[in-house]
Amino acid sequence: MVDSLAEAAAKRANDIAPTCGSGSATMDPWGENVGRTSFGVYDEALVSPDYVFDGWDNPEDHPLTFRQIMWRPTRYVGCASNITQMDSDGPFCHVAVCYYARPGNCNVNNETWLNETLADYSKCGPPCPDEGCY
């Protein structure tokens, strides 16, 4: 068990970065956003929070893939990133992972996504991270 959402996010980012793939499946009960970018030459713009968050803000016409970052019932967030060169002379991979408690995107369909996004409460997952509520 990890001690915090940030530690869980760091573990996940470290798992994904060597191949820039999806990483192994997790059984974590948290909401999750993962952003992956590969590039040949290091570029600060490609690892900025603005770049990552822009990728997590999907349009309204895809409500079932709407990103966890948008859910109002979320109260706790832990994020981490990893930048790894995939081969000794190969491209770099930047992975950013955020875990959320409570996750908000369960029991949602095309008709209910807006109400669920703006609700004060979610029945999804545990209400607090492992380190407790505060």
UniProtKB/TrEMBL annotation:
Domain of life of the native organism: Eukaryota
Protein name: SCP domain-containing protein
One Pfam family recorded for the sequence: CAP
SCP domain sequence ranges: 4-100
